[in-house]
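Could someone model FE2/S2 (inorganic) cluster with this protein?
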Amino acid sequence: MSASVLGDGRFELVVAAKERVAEAVVRVVLTRPDGVALPTWTPGAHIDLILADQLVRQYSLCGDPADGERWEIGVLHEPDGRGGSRHVHQVLDVGDQVTASAPRNNFQLVPAPEYLFLAGGIGITPILPMVRAAQAAGATWRLVYGGRRHASMAFLDRLAQYGSRVTIHPEDIHGQLDLASLLDIPRPDVAVYCCGPEGLLAAVESRCSAWPAGSLHVERFQPRPVGADDIAGAGTAGTAGTGDVAVALSEFDVVLAQSGRTVRVPTSLSVLEALEAAGVDVLSSCREGVCGTCETGVVEGEPDHRDSILTEEERAASGLMMVCVSRSRTPKLVLDL
Ligand code: FES
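Reply:
Sure, complex below.
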């Protein structure tokens, strides 16, 4: 094993470069200190960066997937955030060591005759390798990239090579993105990829509700707000919620298929927390349903999905759940653990 690979599959990396690429955005280049090739990744992938104790954040890889020596991320400074971006901007420096997970991809670029990419602000980062791949594949594609101001929009230099395929849309000059003209007529052959702030994602999801199932692909790095849909089908005992709406919760049992052991999940704990309290190891990272690390197979029972990753189709078909946030609609869930 290389000296820079930790026992849990994480990597010690070193910050090889850090530069400002737009107002409040830095590009950070990470390499392996031992020079060994980094794990491969595909467009849409992200890594966990363990910036400090209890400070784990997910960042999309925005460089070239063919570059096995360097990973690149772009980080927006969010002064009102929870400290990850502040750490990257104000503490992390060239030469520092950081720990990273292997790349994980919840935002895969699927084969399609045509692509429409929609990026808002720092949401451009996972889209960059996607347009590179679409261009290399000779696909028909278009990118509409919105931002608050031209100066706040990162990586414009990289996009210049694509000419008229890319529409740059600073809001202070052009107003909000005209999603109606882009999305109000469903186009069955077009795959739509969107990453950006919650307001953009929610608007795009709403506009695409009449599109064929599976057309829209979104990536969130903040939990989806809890809404009325989440209340439907939830139990009746206790309440909890991560957004504006309190959601009723019930107790239920989780049965571990491999041992037959039963763990009770009270209203005060997530499935993940109940499993950990019972001494059952499950990998986790974000613990808020956005990274996919805790994905677990469901053998029996009906999950109450509360993650921000799985699409409605995946929820219906995949037999998977994120145990850090999702619960159960049935008194018993049998999990592949
Ligand atoms: Fe990130 Fe569960 S730990 S989705």
